[in-house]
């Protein structure tokens, strides 16, 4: 029997860069989660008896929301819900399941790299039938609906057993609890040369993976240790925990420090990698060398033809605007198009659907391809392994040869976290207002060539997104970008992206901080970060 629950709208249910992210306590308020899910169901394009995929990264509150979403889906006319065993589906695996089983969409319960636990963060993201994040037109429609919502629907039924594979009826709807790993692992086997990697493993290739007690643990153990034959223990922190073991599941040099230290040690494995809460991001570290996400994108694109799934070449390469231009140089050398989109994986969807791009990536440690419509952390690790196995080269060698051929984009992102929102917004507004005066101004040896507030017109559907970050471009190809994060849950996070290009024949083997020093000073001079925020150094450097 369907029950209609009266509701009044909550303020602040506007999805950000990647869905709705708030503190768990906010989601626990009566009706808060239900209002949002009902708004999704009210606006989602779906046929009668549609199927819906539900999965999450295993964080605290995951199971509660899954049970409620199932009761609501049954009351809202869905015919089938596919849910990962234990409520677990990595974001790329969820994208694949939606595509493989013809789902009309999916609810992905994750706050990604944000910490988990009763006092920490939770999130809900809606993906559409192509398996990708809902585009802005859909998230805006969901948001508009949240402002007028007056009821939500549910059937009255007990919790289903999420841990047992199989089928259950909930009202007229079928709930299938599916193996979270199998479909995804098969997809990976179809893209990469597992036999070649296995041979390399037998020959001594070593890997260290940090799953950060988040969703990739079961996937990584199955793929790396079981299917590819890496030694037991290759995957550390492999058991998903509701609070990620008290850590921050963000695969960067701060939060994956132990892995970094392993990789810089004397007996380091050949490749080190970490994933985030929901498995869509990756961190890549070679023996003694950190590869920035922007470089990883460029190097993967340049060598992707070594993997069977990409042997036919790439159609195009897309990157988000703050990501370094390293990938553009690869695209130019290949004679294929390069796309520069706003931050947010949702902007790659139309390009992938239209066959304009094959590989996409972001500075925020996301890389992926047209195999799904999400970024995919383990995919990136497997492509690196495939390239290493097929070429017989080390990560260091691949990187050095890449820079010798294309030049090097030194790169870093400086994050100032939990800045008072008013202060951060004013900083960005004043910066935007001062842009007209900047061209021609010198900051040390850096002369501003141009600057703007980045706007994007989608080349496929013509949709326009403005105010996507402020770009300061210097003579010689260096650049500073200022943006406010769209994924934080506390105050504002100011992101400052620093990039310096060294051409072929230039200084290609220096330490990034040394090469970026002048840009750091220029960023402070241009935006008055220290004076306005009181911060003398960033909280996180990636
Ligand atoms: C999300 C988006 C990414 C974006 C990242 C950081 O990733 O999907 O496209 O680059 O957030 O966004 P922001 O700079 O606005 O915080 P995830 O892994 O958090 O879903």
Key terms for this structure?
single chain; about 550 residues; alpha/beta; Alpha-D-Glucose-1,6-Bisphosphate, Chain A, domain 3; TATA-Binding Protein; about 35% helix; about 25% strand; binds 1,6-di-O-phosphono-alpha-D-glucopyranose
Task: Report on this structure.
- The chain is an alpha/beta fold and 542 residues long.
- It folds into 3 domains: 2-179, Alpha-D-Glucose-1,6-Bisphosphate, Chain A, domain 3; 184-406, Alpha-D-Glucose-1,6-Bisphosphate, Chain A, domain 3; 408-541, TATA-Binding Protein, CATH 3.30.310.
- The protein is built from 17 helices and 27 strands.
- A hairpin with a 4-residue loop joins strand 24 (470-474) and strand 25.
- It starts with a strand and ends with a strand.
- The model has no long low-confidence stretch (mean pLDDT 96).
- The site of 1,6-di-O-phosphono-alpha-D-glucopyranose (G16) has 17 residues, from loops.
User: How many H/I helices?
Assistant: 17
Query: What is the CA-atom radius of gyration, in angstroms?
Result: 23 Å
CATH class identity of the largest domain: Alpha Beta
Beta-strand residue fraction: 25-35%
Uncertain segments are none
The separation of the N and C termini measures 52 Å
The overall number of domains is 3
- What CATH calls the topology of the largest domain is Alpha-D-Glucose-1,6-Bisphosphate, Chain A, domain 3
- Determine the mean pLDDT: 96
Which outline best applies?
Answer: globular
Gross CATH architecture of the largest domain: 3-Layer(aba) Sandwich
Instruction: Please bin the fraction of helical residues.
Output: 25-40%
According to DSSP, the number of beta strands is 27
CATH superfamily heading of the largest domain: Alpha-D-Glucose-1,6-Bisphosphate, subunit A, domain 3
What about the largest sheet? 7 strands, mixed
Cross-sheet strand order for the largest sheet: 2-6-5-3-4-9-8
């Amino acid at each position: 029997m369907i029950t209609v629950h009266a509701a009044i709208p909550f303020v602040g249910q506007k999805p950000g860069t990647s869905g709705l992210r708030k503190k768990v306590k906010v989601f626990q308020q009566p009706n808060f989660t239900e209002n949002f899910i009902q708004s999704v169901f009210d606006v989602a394009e779906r046929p009668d008896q549609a199927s819906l995929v539900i999965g999450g990264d295993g964080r605290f509150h995951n199971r509660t929301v899954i049970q409620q979403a199932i009761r609501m889906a049954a009351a809202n006319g869905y015919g089938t819900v596919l849910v990962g065993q234990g409520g677990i589906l990595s974001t790329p695996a969820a994208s694949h399941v939606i595509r493989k089983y013809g789902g009309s969409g999916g609810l992905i319960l994750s706050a990604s790299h944000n910490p988990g636990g009763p006092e920490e963060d939770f999130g809900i993201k809606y993906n559409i039938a192509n398996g990708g994040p809902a585009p802005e037109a859909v998230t805006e429609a969901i948001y508009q609906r949240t402002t007028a919502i007056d009821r939500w629907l549910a059937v009255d039924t007990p919790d289903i057993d999420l841990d047992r594979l199989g089928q259950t009826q909930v009202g007229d709807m079928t709930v299938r609890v599916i193996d979270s790993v199998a479909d995804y692992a098969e997809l990976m086997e179809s893209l990469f040369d597992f036999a070649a990697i296995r041979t390399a493993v037998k020959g001594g290739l070593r890997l260290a993976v940090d799953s950060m007690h988040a969703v990739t643990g079961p996937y990584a153990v199955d793929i790396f240790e079981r299917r590819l034959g890496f030694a037991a223990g290759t995957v550390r922190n492999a058991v998903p925990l509701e609070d990620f073991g008290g850590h921050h599941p963000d695969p960067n040099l701060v939060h994956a420090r132990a892995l970094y230290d392993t990789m810089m040690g004397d007996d380091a494995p050949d490749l080190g990698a970490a994933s985030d809460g929901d498995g869509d991001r990756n961190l890549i570290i070679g023996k003694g060398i950190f590869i920035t996400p922007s470089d990883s994108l460029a190097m993967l694109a340049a060598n992707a033809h070594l993997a069977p799934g990409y042997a036919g070449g790439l159609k195009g390469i897309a990157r988000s605007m703050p990501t370094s231009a390293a990938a553009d140089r690869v695209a130019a050398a290949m004679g294929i198009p390069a796309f520069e989109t706003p931050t947010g994986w949702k902007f790659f969807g139309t390009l992938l659907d239209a066959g304009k791009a094959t590989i996409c990536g972001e500075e925020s440690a996301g890389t992926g391809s047209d195999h799904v419509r999400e970024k995919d952390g383990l995919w990136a690790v497997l492509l690196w392994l495939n390239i290493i196995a097929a070429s017989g080269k080390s990560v260091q060698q691949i990187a050095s040869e890449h820079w010798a051929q294309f030049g090097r984009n030194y790169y870093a992102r400086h994050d100032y976290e939990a800045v008072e929102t008013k202060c951060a917004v004013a900083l960005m507004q004043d910066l935007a207002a001062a842009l007209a005066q900047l061209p021609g101004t010198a900051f040390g040896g850096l002369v501003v060539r141009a600057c703007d507030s980045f706007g994007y017109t989608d080349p496929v559907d013509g949709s326009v997104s403005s105010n996507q970050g402020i770009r300061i471009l210097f003579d010689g190809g260096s650049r500073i970008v200022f943006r406010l994060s769209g994924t934080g849950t506390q105050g504002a996070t100011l992101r400052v992206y620093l990039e310096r290009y060294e051409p072929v024949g230039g200084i290609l083997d220096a330490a990034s901080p040394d090469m970026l020093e002048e840009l750091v000073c220029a960023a402070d001079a241009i935006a008055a970060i220290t004076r306005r925020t009181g911060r003398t150094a960033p909280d996180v450097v990636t």
